[in-house]
Every structure is written in structure tokens, then in C-alpha cells.
Design goal:
With 390 residues, the chain is an alpha+beta fold. It has helices spanning 16-43, 48-56, 75-88, 90-109, 112-124, 238-274, 286-314, 320-345, 356-366, 373-385, and strands at 129-132, 148-152, 155-166, 173-179, 188-194, 200-202, 216-227, 231-232, 276-277, 280-281. The protein folds into three domains: 16-124, Acyl-CoA dehydrogenase/oxidase, N-terminal domain (Butyryl-Coa Dehydrogenase, subunit A, domain 1), CATH 1.10.540; 129-235, Butyryl-CoA Dehydrogenase, subunit A, domain 2 (Beta Barrel), CATH 2.40.110; 240-385, Butyryl-CoA Dehydrogenase, subunit A, domain 3 (Up-down Bundle). The chain is globular, with a radius of gyration of 21 Å. This is Acyl-CoA dehydrogenase. Residues 130-224 form the Acyl-CoA oxidase/dehydrogenase middle domain.
Length: 390
């Protein structure tokens, strides 16, 4: 590869504290994450020690209340942290996003007692979370989930199987959506389930096209007993909590997608300025220059879109439509840009000697997780034209 130094992304950050935070994140990413990313992804190794370091540095609870170990950072800043982490290794950026998603229910709908008891360990105590909504037969149609929680005195007994769970089998806590009432969205309740609960187990992780270092597995709940004190929110409120969490989580996926796209662009530019054909660097040829320009423009547009949505959230204004737009546009951009990066590298781009092919494989999953991009289009259209007539 070229010795040409990659230029940091020019960011508009609201405070000096935020600028120092991003500098810290870049340093951790360059020293602790990026150098081992290719080898560990190829081996399917999850970097738990990196998450311990991030927790110690206060990076696993950035958007949450400092009273409980959070960083009290606006989403505008938190998402740019995710972007930097994902550019170094998507397993890490996505993992932080999922952990933040798993902490959301308790941080926003938990009682004061629950928050005092659990949040400090979740946000800064080295714990890792997982978010359990999807099931094998209820992915996009999440309200049809079948995992059930039955009241037994002061406890609840949970039974069922969750699917496609990031950190399944290695998480220290699981935010689980289970049915406590009738069919449909109003019969769902949220629970905080310890990772070592009796009756909780995980299947062998899925064999995936990309993101091999991040375990994705079914999680089985076989008569898992949890105290009512671990119910989050009121009975029947769980689906609303889940959707609210996903609005914020979609912004996390958007930021991760731009991180992957930026990494792919950086590699493409470095390669194009080094590789010579017909006596010139291939970056001299107009067709390739235009391709790089289009890649960079798509990335900047995606970054602006997710930041605009984040600023709405930070201002306490509705942002669900903009979150869906950001998730849709940024993940589609990541797919286009990574495919183009492979093309820039030519035959080398198709080999594992360069990370371009890994970026392309990883980008695909971002169009699927936390609501497929077809679902995002449905969400956006409902905001524009109202619910579909049946």
C-alpha cells in the first residue's frame, strides 16, 4: 500500500470536550483496533479485551446520564465516535451500537431504583449487552413475536427463542421483549435478563458472509426466571420501548455504515495514488478520478444526513423519519462505495490481501440489521402519506 497518510475526517464538533473525545477514539482505533482487525476477523475472534478498554475509557455509555456512569454526550458526538470505531473495525463499532441499544430500555424507561442498581455496571463496569427482539418467524414483523413471559408470584418465567442476536452467548445482560398478553404489539413487555440466568443458553453462532468476529446466535430461554424488579416499564409497554430504541439504533447503524464506507474510500485513494499503469498513477485517469469523487460525495451526504437526524434527537424533536432516511441512505451508500473500492483495486480488491473485499462483505449486513432497507422505505412513506389502507 501507499505511504500516503490518510487524512482524518473534517468534523464539526460542538465543544472542545468533544474534540478531545474524538482524538482519544482515533488513538484507540489506530493503536488497539485497526492493526488486528483483518487477522481477527478472518479467525472469527471477538475482541472482548477491546470492549473492556472502551468501557474503562467511558465509551460504552456516551449518550447516557453521568449519574450512572454515562458520558452525557449528544448523539451528534456519540455517532461520530461510532463512525471512527467502525472505520477501524465494524465488529467494534457495531458492538458499541448494539450495547447502547441494549442499555436504552433501562436508561430511558427504568425506575430510579433499577437505574441505580444496574446502569453503572452496564455503562461503565465492563459489561456487554445484547438486544433480543427478533425471532425466526418474526423479523420485520416484530410484533408477532412468540417468546412468552408468564407471571409466577413475584417472578416471571420466560420461554422461547430469539434469533439473530448480536453478542448472543457472550453478553452479560439481555434486554428481552416477551409476550405477556394478547397477540399484537400491546401484549409485549421488556425484561432485563442476566447473561448467566439459569435456563438461558445460546446456539452455535451463525456462519456469516462477513462480520465474522461478531457472534450472531439464537438465544434460548427455557423457563428463565426473573424477578418482577427486572421488568422494564409497564406490562404491555415493551413494543413501544423497542421501537423507540430502534429509532436511535438506526442512527448508530447509519454512522457505522459511513465509517465502513470512509475506510473503503481511504484505501481506494491510497491504492490509486500508488498503482501505476501506462506510466502514470491510475489516480490520473479521469474515469477513476470521477469514481473517487462520487464515492466521497456520497459519504459526505450520508454523514450530513445522520448528523441532521441526530441534532433533531438532541433537540428533543421527532426524528423517526429522518432516522429511517439516514439508515437507508447511509447503508446503501456503504454498499455502493465498498463495491466501487473493490473495482478501484481491480484483481487485488478481490483478494484477502487488502481489506476492500471485507468491507464489501460487511457493508451488506448493514442494509439488513435493525430493520431492512425495505422496512425503512415503508417507515418513511408512512410519515409522508399515512398508514397503508388494508
Amino acid at each position: 500500500m501507499s505511504d500516503r497518510e490518510t487524512q482524518p475526517v473534517e468534523r464539526q464538533l460542538p465543544t472542545d470536550e468533544a474534540r478531545d473525545l474524538l482524538a482519544l477514539v482515533r488513538d484507540i482505533a489506530q493503536r488497539e483496533i485497526a492493526p488486528k482487525a483483518a487477522e481477527e476477523e478472518d479467525a472469527g475472534r471477538f475482541p472482548r479485551e477491546v470492549f473492556a478498554l472502551l468501557s474503562e475509557a467511558g465509551l460504552l455509555g456516551l449518550p447516557y446520564d453521568p449519574e450512572y456512569g454515562g458520558g452525557e454526550q449528544p448523539y451528534e458526538v456519540y455517532l461520530q465516535v461510532l463512525e471512527e470505531l467502525a472505520a477501524a473495525r465494524l465488529t467494534v463499532g457495531l458492538g458499541v451500537s448494539v450495547h447502547t441499544l441494549a442499555s436504552y430500555a433501562l436508561a430511558t424507561h427504568g425506575t430510579k431504583q433499577q437505574q441505580v442498581e444496574h446502569l453503572p455496571a452496564m455503562l461503565g463496569g465492563g459489561l456487554l449487552g445484547a438486544y433480543c427482539l427478533s425471532e425466526a418467524s418474526s423479523g420485520s414483523d416484530a410484533a408477532s413475536l412468540r417468546t412468552r413471559a408468564v407471571r409466577d408470584g413475584d417472578d416471571w418465567v420466560l420461554s422461547g427463542t430469539k434469533a439473530w442476536i448480536t453478542h448472543g452467548g457472550i453478553a452479560d445482560f439481555y434486554t428481552v421483549m416477551a409476550r405477556t398478553g394478547a397477540d399484537g404489539p400491546r401484549g409485549i413487555t421488556a425484561f432485563l435478563v442476566p447473561g448467566d440466568a439459569e435456563g438461558l443458553s445460546a446456539a452455535v453462532p451463525e456462519k456469516k458472509m462477513g462480520l465474522k468476529g461478531s457472534p450472531t446466535a439464537q438465544v434460548h430461554l427455557d423457563g428463565v426466571r426473573v424477578a418482577d424488579e427486572r421488568r422494564i416499564g409497564e406490562e404491555g409497554q415493551g413494543f413501544g420501548i423497542a421501537l423507540s430504541a430502534l429509532d436511535s439504533g438506526r442512527l448508530g447503524i447509519a454512522a457505522c455504515a459511513i465509517g465502513v464506507a470512509q475506510a473503503a474510500l481511504d484505501q481506494a485513494v491510497a491504492y490509486a495514488t500508488e498503482r501505476r499503469q501506462f506510466g502514470h498513477p491510475i489516480a490520473d485517469f479521469q474515469g477513476l478520478r470521477f469514481l473517487l469523487a462520487d464515492m466521497a460525495t456520497q459519504i459526505e451526504a450520508g454523514r450530513a444526513l445522520y448528523l441532521a437526524a441526530a441534532r433533531l434527537k438532541d433537540a428533543g424533536r421527532p426524528f423517526a423519519k429522518q432516522a429511517a432516511m439516514a439508515k437507508l441512505h447511509c447503508t446503501d451508500t456503504a454498499m455502493r462505495v465498498t463495491v466501487d473500492a473493490v473495482q478501484v483495486l481491480g484483481g487485488y480488491g478481490y483478494t484477502a490481501d487488502f481489506p476492500a473485499e471485507r468491507y464489501m462483505r460487511e457493508a451488506k449486513v448493514l442494509q439488513i440489521v435493525e430493520g431492512t432497507n425495505q422496512i425503512q422505505r415503508m417507515v418513511i412513506a408512512r410519515h409522508l402519506a399515512g398508514p397503508e389502507s388494508r
